[in-house]
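Homework help thread (please don't just give me the answer)

Our assignment gives two proteins as sequence + structure token strings and asks us to describe the second one. The first is just a warm-up. Here they are:
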Amino acid sequence: MPIKFVIRFTSILVSLLILAALVNQFFFSSQVTTDVWILSFPIIVGIPILASVMCATDNELNQFH
């Protein structure tokens, strides 16, 4: 995989994980924290995937040919 694509994906993923951890810690009670993590996990993983693919240029995607 192109290194620029991987760096973009990883940076978006890490920043969303940090944001989600802070939101879960400060806005939800300890009884529902696990449930919130389970429900928010597809969103946390899906946003970096979609954002990385949408921001990828043709040159990045055509490097394998």
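The one we have to describe:
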Amino acid sequence: MRINSANVVKEIEESPEESQQELTLLHALSKHSVSGLKDLKKEFDPTPIDPKAKKPDLINELLPSIPKESINAIIDKAFNPKIRYTAYIASFEADLPDGEEIAKKTEGFNSDHQYQNEDLLTNGHVERSTLEYVHTIKGESIFVFSSYRKELKFDPEARESTPSTSVKKIRISVDNSTKLITMYTGNKDILGDVLRAMYYIFGKSVKTVSINLAGIVPVDTQEFSYQTVKVLDYIYHGLTELGKLGVINSIELDTPLKSKKPQLVKVKGDDLLTDEVICKYLFIHKRDLVGIRTDFTIILNGFEYLISVELGLKDDKIKVSIKKDHYSLDQLDIFFKLIEENVSIHMANRGLINAQDLHLILSRLSNLALK
């Protein structure tokens, strides 16, 4: 089901719901260090601070003591305009369970992922995961996945090792209409843990959104790699369904040895199609195009929203990243939904969107590469 763009502008301009603000505040506090949380506690809570208090304890103590008028300031400070929000996309086919069934399944997940304390002395650390169901509003369910790591750290003053706990919290949005799962993390290592948590809720129907190269025939490629052809077709004919493509700042190329980290190449000038070095990489060396960072204008009912968007399209994983700039977190959520649905549909479909126009683009690239 498509997102109803007629309602999007209204949703963008509406104030956030209280539950969403509370979740965002929790996320903002989790980004603080222990010393930073202690400073906030001194400001808002006059009760004495336990010097051995860990980060989760400080957050739980802080939440009820922060006045409403101070919440936005804390959120804005934690999420400055230069920050990029990153999310991986997965899909699911099963129906969303009801609240009672979700509660039962999250309880089962948490029970199965407790600390194995006997490993603390053996390995020096232990890990556990929890999944919290927050709410379902308008067909969208919100979860918070928490990854805890407890490790022994030597205290030189006490001359003994004491356990120290760190936590990473991942917000997960499950859209029952588009059947997409948005996992707000750029960390591929923790992504697998988040997916396993979603398997617990939805079963085997959960999968990352794959890049479908089927249906592309050799004549379509003009000797470029199939991956590059698919991605270029999406950038110029799929993404542009949502608005106007601006300056392409950089691209990512898969390395010859297919290493984890792609090669970042900055685009010279204003146009990817006029950069001779990139043309040689793509045509002569047959490198796979696996990522792009570009300025993009989303158009909704005549309103224009300029954003900086980054797409990662590698190893059957689709990643979307958007720079915060002056937009609220609710606005960013809507931008994510629009782009995620668009890229998921087009990258999963067979063949190309506009093979005829893509032929002209590939000809420009190959001619410049051979210049």
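TA reply:
I won't write it for you, but here's a hint about the kind of observation we're looking for: Residues 5-18 have pLDDT under 50 and may be disordered.
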